[in-house]
Fold:
Amino acid sequence: MTSLKPPELKPNDFIHGESSFSAPGIARDDVEAVNRAKPREFYAPRPAIYPKQAHGTFRRIKWIVMAVTLGIYYALPWIRWNRGPDLPDQAVLIDLEHNRYFFFFLEIWPQEFYYITGLLIVSALGLFLFTAVAGRVWCGYTCPQTVWTDLMIAVERFWQGDRNERIRLDKQPWGAVKIFKKGMTHLSWLLIGLATGGAFVFFFRDAPTLAAELVTGTAPESAYFFMGIFALTTYVLGGLAREQVCIYMCPWPRIQGAMTDRHTLLISYRPERGEPRGPHKKNDSWDGRGDCIDCQACIAVCPTGIDIRDGSQLECIQCALCIDACNDIMTKVGRPANLITYDTVAKQEAKAAGLHEPFRPVRPRTILYTGALVVVSAIMLVAWFNRTLLEINVLHDRNPPYVQLSDGSVRNGYTVKLLNKRPEPRTLLLETEGLPGAMVGIIGVDPSEHGHVHVPTDELREVRVLVSVPPAEAAKLGASSTPFWLVLHDSENGTHTKRAAKFQIPQPRHDNGHEKEDNHERH
Amino acid sequence: MSSEKPLVEEGTGVTTTGHVWDDDIREWNKPLPKWWLYSFYVCILIAMVMWYLYPSWPTLNGYTKGSLGYSQRATVAGEIAAARRGQDAFRKQLESAPLEQVKSNPELLRFAMASGAASFQTNCAPCHGRGAQGAIGYPNLNDDDWLWGGTIADIEQTLLYGIRSDHKDTRVSQMPKFGTDKILKPDEIDAAANYVASLSKLPSDADKAKKGAAIYAEQCAACHGPEGRGNTELGAPNLTDGIWLYGSSPEQIRQSIETGRGGMMPAWSGRLDKTTIKSLAVYVHSLGGGR
Structure:
């Protein structure tokens, strides 16, 4: 693994050696040019990493998290949820064909996508909070890249053995055994990839139906396409690229630096306890030396190929496997555990100075993140509980804005959209409110229905609505544009919803007035 | 530019190109990464394959057609034909359905309205306006006043054969030019105009209107009816309502009597197919004034 640190400098790299002898009385800045004019390799090949199997608490936690997250991913589309005869019975379904998103008891229409936006904001703030308290727990335990890479490495270990065996295998010339072991590894990776892609498409179409279609080869082309894409990306990103995704492709390691601070729990080596490090023979004294016996176990298990003893670094996904590896060794040599552990910079500095500093999870940063999380969640909940299952959208005709009828009535036309978000068909009554004498006519709806519109289950119906006001009432409307309500009643359950609209009448025209005056003069 | 023996960079072994500009400017010979270079070569190959498969190079009198025979025009034509085929079921249904039944079939109504609205914008909007709101001399199709009848069948007939068009089945009538042809004297026209205004309760001179009533009974009642309610058989407008195709000011009414009126609407039967005309009739009837 190439480190992103500046190249190590040797004394003869300094071109102007004299500068270290500054004049007496002039302080010398302790600074080094990072991008020094020194030949550097632009393209370095990636040295292979052979993560060793770790055993311990954190490895166990990671197995459990892997089982749970993968379990959710693969099983979720198969959970059924009864929504009545007209709607799909899949608990989690992104129904692109009908533009609906189902999540257990929730159902979202495309124009309500802001609920998803809110959910994403809540997730982001949650991620901020977790990162501020305990560093990259997302990266270390639950990120799909980490989970799948972990799975791919486990598969690799199953076919090719642990670290040393794998190194030996790679050095061996190609033969039947090597071809078999490598071939089975890649085949397993591809099958895992295919299963990943296969599970993904089930979120977008009824799972049992799609499964049958996939087997018989009658599924939509897009299903095969996305299965292929996900199979390939899982194989490439999880099997081949692994830690390179985290180090070079993912923006999160760059961003997370803004969320962590001196009080954030990070996986840290305790130099004050470990140094000076060095090999240790049995029965040697531990006096005058650190607990680190430089066994490199922490490096061997690391999936990103770093040395945690160099300190916090960008490549570290904080998977905690080095803690397990080190504790294993510490137990063996009879020293206290947790030479590598979750620790904060503040605590370490205090300890080095002989002071005590507690872990501070509650601090302005975390309070701010929690506050933002609470506020956004509250907004989301309020919005959700005010969500209507009946909606009406009204668009006034622009051209013509009004029509004068032969008896002197004025008529306005509206395009009205009725949204029935209930899992059953509804018959809705459309009326006006606040417009005396108004009569409602609906194009395509028989007058004998008396303004009742039938809207099928979970659908939107668009109707053209004509509202007429008789001459006597129209004359009473003072302004050229009168606000009123279009009200939608559901007579079955008594609910109603309304939408503000405007009724327009001809504006008294100035030149008409002149004509009348002229007329008058003539008489 | 001069040449020299390439210099070698210490440590990496990278050389210069051996070219020197302005005495001291040299260029490191650091080639592009392999993956980049090979991607570039592959792109060139792909381009050559594309030249062979698709239209690419212009020639003096055309262009190279490519082995696939691909053409964007043909693709569009195909898409239009496919869309037409998609409409076929509806078009057939619309063609055979009696006009009155179109409105009771929601699916058919939606198709007819959409196709009618599109045809209206192309063919009818220039005179009747994009909202069918009309103008002086061009009827507003939203209101409930119809010169030649407002049932869906009436509207279809008007669409098919036009009004005062060159079609043999056209709707036709002529309002005499009472002034221009010296049928009435100016003061008689003035009297008749006042009477007509009084019919729809517009401001008028009672004495003149009284005199005009006699003239109306003699000259106008034959077409416009004894009470001025008009006659859709003859395209004679109702003079008692609030809608005036040529304006309701005294000057406008007087001018209508003096010079006569008679708008012209083309016959669409030879220009649009039957189903299009049918959907136009449905659309216009559904604008709100249909009877």
Remarks:
- DSSP finds ten helices and five strands in chain B.
- Chain B has a mean pLDDT of 91.
- The two ends of chain B are 91 Å apart (CA to CA).
